[in-house]
Design goal:
By secondary structure, the chain is mainly alpha-helical. It is 80% helix and 0% strand. The N and C termini lie far apart (67 Å). The relative contact order is 0.04.
């Protein structure tokens, strides 16, 4: 049984592995671009095309996120309005019942 002050070898291992793999992939891709037998102009064009594609993808994701937020907001408003109606009807029913029990001349 490990003591509390001993490091747990499994802690964070998977996360570090994933970070290492992603970092290695990024470095490998950058090295491939820079070391490829292309002219500087071709490399710049490739980088510009990849940046444009990344920007388009980010804009599409942003738009999808905005649409999803709008849908969630609409559902939230609908739920709020429905709950508000239920509360008002319940309040009115209680008020009516109190008036019937107490009598028309007395307020509760």
């Amino acid at each position: 049984m490990p003591y509390d002050n001993e490091p747990d070898e499994r802690r964070g291992g998977v996360g570090l592995l994933v970070v290492g793999l992603l970092l290695g992939a990024a470095v490998g891709a950058a090295a491939a671009l820079l070391l490829a037998p292309k002219s500087g102009r071709e490399v710049r064009d490739d980088l510009a095309a990849r940046a444009k594609k990344a920007r388009e993808t980010a804009n599409e994701s942003l738009q999808q996120g905005r649409e999803k937020v709008g849908q969630v907001m609409d559902k939230g408003r609908e739920a709020y309005d429905k709950a508000r109606g239920v509360v008002q009807r319940t309040r009115d029913d209680i008020k009516q019942n109190v008036h019937e029990l107490v009598g028309p001349g007395k307020d509760a």
